[in-house]
Description:
This protein is α/β, with parallel strands linked by helices. The protein folds into two domains: about 5-105, NAD(P)-binding Rossmann-like Domain (Rossmann fold); about 105-135, no CATH class. Helices cover about 40% and strands about 20% of the residues. It has six helices and five strands; from the N terminus they run H-E-H-E-H-E-H-H-E-H-E. The chain has helices at about 5-15, 30-35, 60-65, 75-80, 85-100, 115-125, and strands at about 20-25, 40-45, 70, 105-110, 130-135. The strands form two sheets. Strands 1-2-3 form a three-stranded parallel beta sheet. The radius of gyration is 17 Å and the shape is globular.
Amino acid sequence: MAGFGRQKDEALALTGGRGVDLVFDPVGGDRTLDTMRSLALGGRWLVIGFVGGEVPQVPLNRVLLRNIDVVGAYYGGYLSARPAARPEIRRRLMQLLEAGDLRPLAGTVFDLEQAAEALRALAGRRAVGKVVLRVR
């Protein structure tokens, strides 16, 4: 998780200081303020998890002053409450993938013999994106 401040600075530089419209945040933890600072006025912060370990306390004054939306998106809970939504969600995700609008980040690919190292990367929070274990 180290280095998000640099990513926040890069996001601001790439947008001419405006900030980004959407942050998809699986990290939480001590990156909360940098996440909020990277958002444009009226931006949206999509919270999907807390792999940073700690559930952050959100300073609501910053939400108010930046006019940002903070949206919790717990997929498992949503599907538990609305199981009939699964086919439509899958159809829409496939559309986004096929159109190239959604580009999942695949992290390091490990051979099966490197499974222990893959687990160490996850445990040490060095994994970026999905960790893939190649079986064949």
